[in-house]
Design a protein that fits this description.
Helix content is about 55%, strand content about 0%. It is mainly α. The longest helix is centred in the middle third of the chain and has 30 residues. The radius of gyration is 30 Å and the shape is rod-shaped.
Length: about 70
């Protein structure tokens, strides 16, 4: 009888036993990943709600010489 029960019990996994440190690590990583995805999705929703920006700014304006005009470009 024990010969039949042993293989079945080995396939049952960790049912009713304390989780292993590796299981705890995987669970923590899964929770962190879900939190990161939620934060990303929330940020994307906020950016979409703001709408497109139509401002024409020149981020290199402080680098160019003062005598250069738009017509020369």
């Amino acid at each position: 009888m024990a010969a039949l029960v042993a293989p079945a019990a080995s396939q049952m996994g960790n049912q009713g036993k304390a989780p292993t440190p590796l299981d705890l690590q995987y669970e923590r990583e899964r929770q962190e990943q879900q939190a990161n995805e939620k934060a990303y999705n929330d940020q994307m929703k906020r950016l979409k709600a703001q709408g497109p920006t139509n401002s024409k700014t020149d981020p290199w304006a402080g680098v160019r010489p003062a005598n250069e005009t738009n017509a020369k470009r």
